[in-house]
């Protein structure tokens, strides 16, 4: 149990650092404004987390991919292109700035693979990798790295 929590903490740490270092996004801006008023560090962090929860920033994290809905990569082959054809939003894909690829993705993907190997199963990693391929072929749409349901790192 403690090892699992450490792994979750490691993936969360990578994710939060990538959020913080990602240009001048809403949560970074919010924390800087709060800190700039002379407020304490904790208030700046709480403000940043509040901005991160918004649906136009990281708030889509609450729409996490439910791996229990996919039993194998073959099933994912038909589900995701169909969602694209129906013009449905596919959570975890497409970024308003990084239309080709999110540069943070390779970091998250590497951490996900490492944690999956440490956990003794690459099953979910392989499904996520397949979904990435399927979505790229269907719509030239790459995964959003932080807050993405793909490459779950916990």
TrEMBL record:
The keyword Kinase does not apply. GO terms for molecular function: 2-methylcitrate synthase activity; citrate synthase activity. GO terms for biological process: carbohydrate metabolic process; propionate metabolic process, methylcitrate cycle; tricarboxylic acid cycle. Keywords: Acyltransferase, Transferase. InterPro entries: Citrate_synth-like_lrg_a-sub (IPR016142), Citrate_synth-like_sm_a-sub (IPR016143), Citrate_synthase (IPR002020), Citrate_synthase_AS (IPR019810), Citrate_synthase_sf (IPR036969). Pathway: Carbohydrate metabolism; tricarboxylic acid cycle; isocitrate from oxaloacetate: step 1/2. It comes from the Bacteria. The keyword Transferase applies. Its EC number is 2.3.3.16. Belongs to the citrate synthase family. This is citrate synthase (unknown stereospecificity). The lineage of its organism: Bacteria, Pseudomonadati, Pseudomonadota, Gammaproteobacteria, Enterobacterales.
């Amino acid at each position: 149990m403690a090892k699992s929590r450490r792994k979750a903490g490691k993936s969360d740490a990578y994710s939060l650092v990538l959020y913080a270092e990602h240009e001048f996004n809403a949560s970074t801006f919010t924390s800087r404004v709060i800190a700039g008023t002379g407020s304490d560090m904790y208030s700046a962090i709480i403000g940043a987390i509040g901005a991160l929860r918004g649906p136009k920033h990281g708030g889509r994290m609450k729409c996490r991919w439910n791996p229990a809905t996919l039993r194998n990569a073959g099933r994912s082959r038909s589900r995701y292109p169909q969602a694209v054809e129906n013009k449905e939003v596919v959570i975890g894909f497409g970024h308003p700035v990084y239309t080709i690829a999110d540069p943070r993705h390779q970091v998250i993907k590497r951490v996900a693979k490492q944690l999956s190997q440490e956990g003794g199963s690459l099953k979910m990693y392989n499904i996520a990798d397949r979904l990435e391929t399927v979505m790229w072929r269907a719509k030239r749409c790459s995964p959003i790295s932080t807050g993405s349901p793909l490459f779950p790192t916990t």
